[in-house]
Amino acid sequence: MIILDGKKTSDNIKDEIAIAVAKRKEAGLKTPHLAAIIVGTDGASMTYVNSKVKSCQKVGFNSTLIDLPEDTTEEQLLHEIEELNNDKDIDGFIVQLPLPKQIDEQKVLMAVDPDKDVDGFHPVNVGKMTLDLPSFLPATPYGILELLERYEVETSGKKVVVIGRSHIVGRPLSILLSQKRKVGNATVTLAHSRTRDLASITREADIVVAALGIAEFLTGDMVKDGATIIDVGITRVKDDSKKRGYRLAGDVDFESVSKKASFITPVPGGVGPMTIAMLLKNTLQACENRD
Ligand SMILES: NC(=O)C1=CN([C@@H]2O[C@H](COP(=O)(O)OP(=O)(O)OC[C@H]3O[C@@H](n4cnc5c(N)ncnc54)[C@H](OP(=O)(O)O)[C@@H]3O)[C@@H](O)[C@H]2O)C=CC1
Ligand SMILES: Nc1nc(=O)c2c([nH]1)NC[C@@H]1CN(c3ccc(C(=O)N[C@@H](CCC(=O)O)C(=O)O)cc3)C=[N+]21
């Protein structure tokens, strides 16, 4: 069994980005600048945004964090987005999800300039991605493709089951893996809460991606011997023995599944760090697109 080490791989990718940034600076080119808007103070979102800022420093990017109160109106948020769209120094930005309920997520995502949409969530980028045209790939699916590529996990002709059809992970990943691309050419099944007899479907799969958000949902009896397992889920589970009072759990029961898997991602240290690395990669790309 081989652990797909997302932490180490993301560090390698960040080193590559740092070199590219240093070269840009030497050549007198612009330093990439990523901004993030966060509305409210949801604990997990704060953790993610903070590690994004730290990673920006590590690769030599400039970063801006716009922290808005929980009771921000949709109009106020749209105004902030417009400012970032018009800011010549900002190459890319993200609006951290989920948003408070008074704000229409779809409206917000559509307000982001597609050229600065480094999350790849704008319909223009989703459309381009779906049509195999160059676009910003959403960071989590992009990170999974990158991890599979760097560990040389074969996807061509393989049966893949993706569990979860969210617009940010499951759906785009299912599209990408089915495409004619280096990490792709798979036969993909997209499962969700209405799927019947999921275990009989996952047991046939060469690769299972668990992205449903239920801690330790995928168990050893649901996978076949030698399968590759990608665990996207991150759930905070109360644990008083831990300093922070919780531990992070994936959607995979690592203990039972790792006994059968040939490759498996851990949580933490798997898909999460890859997501951040690919967000930086998209931001570098956005900056280069403006040279
Ligand atoms: N590592 C990373 O970088 C990231 C991690 N995450 C984590 O990934 C997990 C999923 O998040 P996200 O992609 O936003 O998904 P959502 O929470 O938006 O959606 C969950 C999906 O899982 C499906 N689902 C729920 N229960 C079941 C079930 N019992 N059987 C099969 N399918 C089910 C739902 O089906 P239906 O559509 O029918 O409701 C839905 O499609 C979360 O733990 C989140 O924290 C998310 C983003 C990035
Ligand atoms: N606009 C937007 N874009 C996103 O990409 C986005 C989002 N909103 N909202 C929330 C989800 C979640 N997400 C994570 C990214 C990194 C880790 C990560 O680095 N996790 C570490 C652990 C971090 C910890 O200690 O909590 C790990 O898995 O090792 C986790 C989750 C991005 N998302």
From TrEMBL:
Catalytic reaction equation(s): (6R)-5,10-methenyltetrahydrofolate + H2O = (6R)-10-formyltetrahydrofolate + H(+); (6R)-5,10-methylene-5,6,7,8-tetrahydrofolate + NADP(+) = (6R)-5,10-methenyltetrahydrofolate + NADPH
PROSITE patterns assigned: THF_DHG_CYH_1 (PS00766), THF_DHG_CYH_2 (PS00767)
Binding site for NADP(+): G164, R165, S166, I234
Keywords of this entry: Amino-acid biosynthesis, Histidine biosynthesis, Hydrolase, Methionine biosynthesis, Multifunctional enzyme, NADP, One-carbon metabolism, Oxidoreductase, Purine biosynthesis
EC number: 1.5.1.5, 3.5.4.9
Transcription found in the keyword field: no
Domain Tetrahydrofolate dehydrogenase/cyclohydrolase catalytic: 4-119
InterPro entries: Aminoacid_DH-like_N_sf, NAD(P)-bd_dom_sf, THF_DH/CycHdrlase, THF_DH/CycHdrlase_cat_dom, THF_DH/CycHdrlase_CS, THF_DH/CycHdrlase_NAD-bd_dom
Keyword Oxidoreductase: yes
Pathway in which the depicted protein is active: One-carbon metabolism; tetrahydrofolate interconversion
Residue stretches making up the Tetrahydrofolate dehydrogenase/cyclohydrolase NAD(P)-binding domain: 138-289
Homology family: Belongs to the tetrahydrofolate dehydrogenase/cyclohydrolase family.
Function summary: Catalyzes the oxidation of 5,10-methylenetetrahydrofolate to 5,10-methenyltetrahydrofolate and then the hydrolysis of 5,10-methenyltetrahydrofolate to 10-formyltetrahydrofolate.
Summary of subunit composition and partner proteins: Homodimer.
Protein name: Bifunctional protein FolD
Gene source species: Lutimonas vermicola
Gene name tied to this protein: folD
